[in-house]
Amino acid sequence: MNKIPVIVVDDSALVRKLLTEIINADPELEVVATAADPFQAREKIKQFNPDVLTLDVEMPKMDGITFLRNLMRLRPMPVVMVSTLTEKGAETTLEALSLGAFDFVEKPKIDVSHTLGAYSDELIGKIKAASTANPQTLVKSASFQVEEKLSADAVLAKTNSSSSLKTTEKVVAIGSSTGGTEAIKEIICKLPANAPSIVITQHIPVTFSAAFAARVNSTAAMHVSQAMDGEQILPGHVYIAPGDKHLLVERSGARYYCRLNDGSAVSRHKPSVDVLFRSVAQNVGANAIGIMLTGMGDDGAKGMLEMKESGAMNIVQDEKSSVVWGMPGAAYKLGAAELVLPLDKIAQEIMKLSR
């Protein structure tokens, strides 16, 4: 069997060694070369023609962002960024995703061997997914795992039907993961200031979610922020789930509110799209519009089906424009969506449905 060739780029010899050992331990992957800086990496890419590159964000001689920008212009390929989970690291990593990086993982901590197994699974899973991505989709355009896969029942019990609402106010619920930060940004930046309220669950670390919301807000007509517990959901506003809590929509009379929940990971994610979508099905019902964007796995598929059963109109991003057609594909195969649209048509459809 042909193994997936990978090149590891990191200025730390210890990190290069650790990443190499983790990757080579998987029978489907092989580190064909390592590089200590972007100049070495450039030559190794020419020599070994890898399928995937892991790239350190901060390196000497040339930083990872500058190298990535040149790489995606001259030789587009799937890149998994290796980032520190800090405020500075968040800004840099979000910029990397905007330039076409496939996804990111945390910089490995050498002294925490008890968590290395989960880290290895995450790294290997993202490298394998990256190897199947379309580099051209990346140019145009995260999730920490737990062992047990729980359903939305762990956070919010399922009810037989949604409440009847005395309001026509629309709420748009969006779920996404790998590739989702740029997909969300593209949709939000195409919407007018008077667009219907939007609630979003994006798989992202807690240190990244506030920076992500601020990044989208800087270029959007709508007001974009990280959701706060108990705040009212208003038209013209976008609420993004914090990276360590589930976001739910609650209703009081004809008003909707954000509710943050610190419960168990659901569908192996926290925040979980399944949790958000179930809460929308129960509290918004036929006044909701569900959107499933690019992402690995199947989080949100069952919740989107519950939204459909409650009368919501659902859209999934098509496979061609998705970085990974895991989450939207799972929802589509479950029969949860009425429409399958390319990314550049979704904002227009949101406004059409909201009217």
Outline the secondary-structure elements.
Elements: E1 4-9, H1 13-24, E2 29-35, H2 38-48, E3 52-56, H3 64-74, E4 79-83, H4 87-99, E5 103-106, H5 116-131, H6 135-140, E6 171-176, H7 180-188, E7 197-202, H8 206-217, E8 223-226, E9 237-240, E10 246-252, E11 255-261, H9 273-283, E12 288-292, H10 301-309, E13 313-317, H11 327-333, E14 339-341, H12 343-354
Parallel strand pairs: 1-2, 1-3, 3-4, 4-5, 6-7, 6-12, 7-9, 8-9, 12-13, 13-14
Antiparallel strand pairs: 10-11
Summary, kept brief:
The active site is at residues 177, 203, 299. The protein is of the alpha/beta class and 355 residues long.
List keywords for this structure.
7-stranded parallel sheet; Rossmann fold; 355 residues; 21% strand; alpha/beta
Task: Provide structural commentary.
Belongs to the CheB family. A 7-stranded parallel β-sheet has the order 8-9-7-6-12-13-14, sandwiched between helices. By secondary structure, it is α/β, with parallel strands linked by helices. It has helices at residues 13-24, 38-48, 64-74, 87-99, 116-131, 135-140, 180-188, 206-217, 273-283, 301-309, 327-333, 343-354; strands at residues 4-9, 29-35, 52-56, 79-83, 103-106, 171-176, 197-202, 223-226, 237-240, 246-252, 255-261, 288-292, 313-317, 339-341. α3 packs parallel to α4 (87-99), α7 (180-188) crosses α12 and α9 packs parallel to α10.
